[in-house]
Amino acid sequence: MASIDLDKVLDKAWADKSVPAVMAAPVSALKGVSDRQGELLREAFGIETVADLADLKYVGRAQALAALNAAK
């Protein structure tokens, strides 16, 4: 089972929310992602929520490449 310290990855306004609520939240709920960056993600990729970002095929591809690189 995966675990994560939500205080480290979420804006403080979202740290006490449930995981389903965070997944439905705008990407600006992630610590370090501004409202403007969220707008740019929406414009470029149609990303509106944390779930959309997690499902973005380019994220999965980049993670797979990073795993291959780490396995060297």
User: How many beta-strand segments?
Assistant: 0
Q: Please tally the helical runs, counting DSSP H or I stretches of 4 or more residues.
A: 5
> Which class of secondary structure composition applies to the elements?
mainly alpha
* Rg computed from alpha carbons, rounded to a whole number of angstroms: 13 Å
Q: Give the CA-CA distance, first to last residue.
A: 26 Å
Q: What summary fits the major beta sheet?
A: none
Overview of this protein structure:
The chain is mainly α. The chain is built from five helices and no strands. It has helices at residues 6-9, 19-23, 35-45, 50-55, 57-70. The longest helix is centred in the C-terminal third of the chain and has 14 residues, at 57-70. It starts with 5 loop residues before the first helix and ends with a helix. The mean pLDDT is 94.
